[in-house]
Amino acid sequence: MSKDLESFDTTTTYRTVSKDYAVAAEEFWGFISDETIAHLDLRAGLRVLDLCCGPGPMTLRLAERVGSGGCVEAVDVLEEMRTLTRERAAQRGFAHVIVREGDIDALPEGDASFDIVNCSLGLYFARDMARSLASFWSYVRPGGTLAVTTIGPRLFDPVRPVFFEACEAELPGVGTYLPWTRTDDPDVVLSLFEQAGIPGAVVSTDRRAIRLASPQAWWPIVHGSGLRQLQEELGEAAGDRVRRRCEAWIEQNGVTGINVETLRLIATKPR
Ligand SMILES: C[S@@+](CC[C@H](N)C(=O)[O-])C[C@H]1O[C@@H](n2cnc3c(N)ncnc32)[C@H](O)[C@@H]1O
């Protein structure tokens, strides 16, 4: 398995997946956003920065909590994601959501003005994660909060190894570098916070099973997640064989849920 972040084409993957990700983020793993929201002290009127906003699962939840007297600035590197967030915020009448282009590898120094800075399921795309974390911290006001959510180990077990074996059988060497494995260990993420000069981060983990209502429920998860890169690389015919192999295995083994663990790190800036 390649260990090279560059081997995962983040731009093409999330550009291709954007609309399906928006659906999956609500239908399958909206609970990740809900759990992060539950960890934050959200009140009307707060100013929040949502980095790597994607199609806005966190942006919309944050906007609802801070209300029209607050503000949520949502940032993503991809236009497709920004458009979805903008449209979904407009559909809800959230005029207090501002969507901007931004790259977490190259954020300008912040002005320490945000009550909360959030980055959900995005840190692991940064080339230098400690440097990006330090830049996130520069946007947090004294007394404010930085919240980072990442994916824990064993994502999508027990189906994941079956899926990868089937992919490998179809196309040996198919890109299997998964950026989220860079931050699936709480000690590693805590040490990144320390390297970034962020003191006192509190780490918590949540372990859930996403319900698979039927064997056919697996493929929309591939189709609507970062695994989409493999589906695209396999092409239609091989992708179809992989899908059928996974569905048969899920059926034979009576699997009705897949593992999703999340890690949350929350740090409060000293006043
Ligand atoms: C897995 S999605 C997470 C979306 C959302 N935050 C959520 O909780 O579901 C990752 C997002 O990070 C964005 N992204 C990846 N690399 C980035 C970068 N260097 N700077 C800003 N956004 C980036 C992608 O475009 C994508 O929208």
Share of residues in strands: 15-25%
CATH superfamily: Vaccinia Virus protein VP39
Largest sheet descriptor: 7 strands, mixed
CATH architectural name: 3-Layer(aba) Sandwich
Distance between the termini: 45 Å
**Helix and strand succession?**
HHEHEHEEHEHHEHHE
Number of domains: 1
The level 1 CATH classification is Alpha Beta
- Widest β-sheet, arrangement of strands: 3-2-1-4-5-7-6
Task: State the total count of DSSP E strands.
Answer: 7
Give the integer mean of the pLDDT values.
94
Question: Which fold does the CATH topology refer to?
Answer: Rossmann fold
Question: How many helical elements?
Answer: 9
CA-based shape: globular
Secondary-structure-based class equals alpha/beta
**Level of helix content?**
40-55%
User: What is the alpha-carbon Rg in Å?
Assistant: 19 Å
Bound molecules: S-adenosylmethionine
Low-confidence stretches: none
Protein name: Methyltransferase domain-containing protein
InterPro entries: SAM-dependent_MTases_sf
Organism: Kitasatospora putterlickiae
Keywords: Methyltransferase, S-adenosyl-L-methionine, Transferase
For this entry, give a set of tags.
alpha/beta, Rossmann fold, binds S-adenosylmethionine
Q: What can you tell me about this protein's structure?
A:
It comes from Kitasatospora putterlickiae. InterPro entries: SAM-dependent_MTases_sf. This is Methyltransferase domain-containing protein. The chain is an alpha/beta fold and 271 residues long. The protein has a single domain (5-153, 178-211, 260-268), classed as 3-Layer(aba) Sandwich (Rossmann fold), CATH 3.40.50.150. It has helices spanning 10-27, 30-39, 57-66, 79-91, 129-137, 159-170, 186-195, 218-223, 228-252, and strands at residues 47-51, 71-76, 97-101, 114-120, 140-151, 202-211, 257-268. Strands 3-2-1-4-5-7-6 form a 7-stranded mixed β-sheet, sandwiched between helices. Helix 2 runs parallel beside helix 3 and helix 5 packs across helix 7. It is globular and about 55 Å long. Bound molecules: S-adenosylmethionine. Residues 10, 14, 25, 33, 52-54, 57-58, 76-78, 81, 102-105, 120-122, 125 line the site of S-adenosylmethionine (SAM). The site of S-adenosylmethionine has 21 residues, from helix 1 and helix 3.
